[in-house]
Amino acid sequence: AQSVTQLDSHVSVSEGTPVLLRCNYSSSYSPSLFWYVQHPNKGLQLLLKYTSAATLVKGINGFEAEFKKSETSFHLTKPSAHMSDAAEYFCVVSDRSTGGFKTIFGAGTRLFVKA
Amino acid sequence: NAGVTQTPKFQVLKTGQSMTLQCAQDMNHNSMYWYRQDPGMGLRLIYYSASEGTTDKGEVPNGYNVSRLNKREFSLRLESAAPSQTSVYFCASRLGSGGPETQYFGPGTRLLVL
């Protein structure tokens, strides 16, 4: 069965320092993995996705994530945080299930960026 | 190209009242979804429609009904609202039925049930 665990409910960084948002998943097949960002009072926007091509995936706004099958992880990173990165981030797994695909959302990690 | 639109943006209901949340997409997508978002729980799937004319239950369908009116529109109905249905509701669409395809989300409807 598929599942997604975002290891931190809140992460706080200073502007200009690196960001690490952690995500572990479980999947029976070869999953597709996504990171979405949600700014306050907005819908979710795709940051990046992994679909069995390169294991290091680059997304928008300088974010990237590395798929590590041996660790069942898909952590999101950015070298230098900006104030505009303050938002909630969701790790998502989509995989084959009975009757089609199943998409599971993590509980979310809220990123705070301090000036 | 407006993407995914939702109406209304905000709604306050009394317990027992009914209402319909509207969703439309102009991307010619086949699949559409309704989620609810509650603090600390991510997004949970209420209902989805893999194609025009079909609907299926998701993780939390109780208390809701849906209609896939045509390829563009997918509505969510609360027949008798309960305080437990206070949440933010998101509609989403994707071209196919899942896997590596990106979902596109609307801006959300904030519902308060008193």
Compute the average pLDDT of chain A: 91
N-to-C CA distance of chain A: 41 Å
Pair with the biggest interface: A-B, 26 and 21 residues
- What oligomeric assembly is this protein in? heterodimer
Unreliable segments of 5+ consecutive residues of chain A: none
Give helix % range of chain B.
under 10%
Q: Proportion of β residues of chain A?
A: over 45%
User: SS-based structural class of chain A?
Assistant: mainly beta
Let me know the largest β-sheet of chain B. 7 strands, mixed
Please report which band the strand proportion of chain B falls in: under 5%, 5-15%, 15-25%, 25-35%, 35-45% or over 45%. over 45%
Tell me the radius of gyration of chain A: 14 Å
The number of helical runs of chain A is: 0
Instruction: Output the helix-strand order of chain A.
Output: EEEEEEEEEEEE
- Helical content of chain A stands at under 10%
Question: Separation of termini of chain B?
Answer: 36 Å
Label the structural class of chain B: mainly beta
Question: Which outline of chain A best applies?
Answer: globular
Encode the helix/strand succession of chain B as letters: EEEEEEEEEEE
Low-confidence residue ranges of chain B = none
Structure, explained:
Chain A is an all-beta fold. Chain A has strands at 3-6, 10-14, 19-21, 23-26, 32-38, 44-50, 56-58, 64-68, 73-78, 87-97, 100-105, 109-114. In chain A, the strands form three sheets. In chain A, strands 2, 5, 6, 10, 11 and 12 form a six-stranded mixed sheet that branches. A four-stranded antiparallel sheet of chain A has the order 3-9-8-7, with no helix packed on it. A two-stranded antiparallel sheet of chain A has the order 1-4. The radius of gyration of chain A is 14 Å and the shape is globular. The mean pLDDT of chain A is 91. By secondary structure, chain B is an all-beta fold. Chain B contains no helices and eleven strands. Chain B has strands spanning 4-7, 10-13, 19-25, 31-37, 43-49, 56-57, 64-68, 74-78, 87-94, 104-105, 109-113. In chain B, the strands form two sheets. In chain B, strands 2, 4, 5, 6, 9, 10 and 11 form a seven-stranded mixed sheet that branches. Chain B has a four-stranded antiparallel sheet with strand order 1-3-8-7, with no helix packed on it. In chain B, a hairpin with a 6-residue loop joins strand 5 and strand 6. The model of chain B has no long low-confidence stretch (mean pLDDT 93). The interface between A and B is medium-sized, with 26 and 21 residues.
